[in-house]
Amino acid sequence: MNHSLLEARGIHTYYGASHILRGIDFTVRRGETVGLMGRNGMGKTTLLKTLMGVVPSHKGEIRINGHVTTRSQPCRIARHGVAYVPEGRGIFPNLSVRENLVMAARPGVGGRRDWTFERALKTFPRLGERLGHGGGQLSGGEQQMLTIGRALMTNPDLLILDEATEGLAPIICREIWTVIGAIRDTGIATIIVDKNFRAISSITDRNVILVKGNVVFEGDREALRSQPEVLKNFLGV
Ligand SMILES: Nc1ncnc2c1ncn2[C@@H]1O[C@H](COP(=O)(O)OP(=O)(O)OP(=O)(O)O)[C@@H](O)[C@H]1O
Description:
This is ATP-binding cassette domain-containing protein. This protein is α/β, with parallel strands linked by helices. The chain contains 10 helices and 10 strands. The protein has helices spanning about 45-50, 75-80, 95-105, 115-125, 125-130, 140-150, 170-185, 195-205, 220-225, 230-235; strands at about 5-15, 20-30, 35, 60-65, 65-70, 80-85, 160, 190-195, 205-210, 215-220. A 6-stranded mixed beta sheet has the order 6-7-8-3-9-10, with helices on both faces. The protein is globular. The mean pLDDT is about 95. Adenosine-5'-triphosphate (ATP) binds near residues 38, 41, 43 and 46.
């Protein structure tokens, strides 16, 4: 029995002639929170896009929830239980908060309907106060909450967050980190990319660092924090 929710082996991805991912192995177990770290341009977003089928891998194999998804379209991968929140915010600015949430609703793998409209509002009370507002009228932090709320409404097994707190005020970032911690407690696995390694590593089970398309470190919070040279060399902190 394979307990991995997501398993990628020997992944190579190119943009044209540029060889970006150079043989990456990457695993997420059920319910696990994984921090994906690295300096700018090291291939984090490319790895997420490859896992989601947005960018094709040239070599290697990806399995999600037991299905080989290496050459699947993003919509098929989403149906295998993955919700992807890309950098920037993917909401419909002309639809209301209510419409944005309701439109995204669908059962998860096996018909699971843990996340309902009511539960999303309980998780993000701010959204409940803005139900009639257009998505485009929200602040940056509220838009990010709506994006995450929409992703949860698809009842995912795995939530992928790329730079969820980018450009947001510290107080809003803290609110988002708290929510991500709460999502973790519900058993949803998460991959998080964020520049704030302290915030990430305080909620992750495992951390993976990329340098030039290779995995150079993999370990839990203690392993990461006990190796200042790793932080300095690979993250510049
Ligand atoms: N569409 C593209 N076409 C060509 N090259 C690209 C494209 N997107 C990204 N790259 C290049 O691929 C490399 C990896 O980029 P990627 O966005 O995956 O890095 P990242 O680790 O997510 O960095 P950042 O934190 O800056 O988003 C970079 O050198 C980048 O310039």
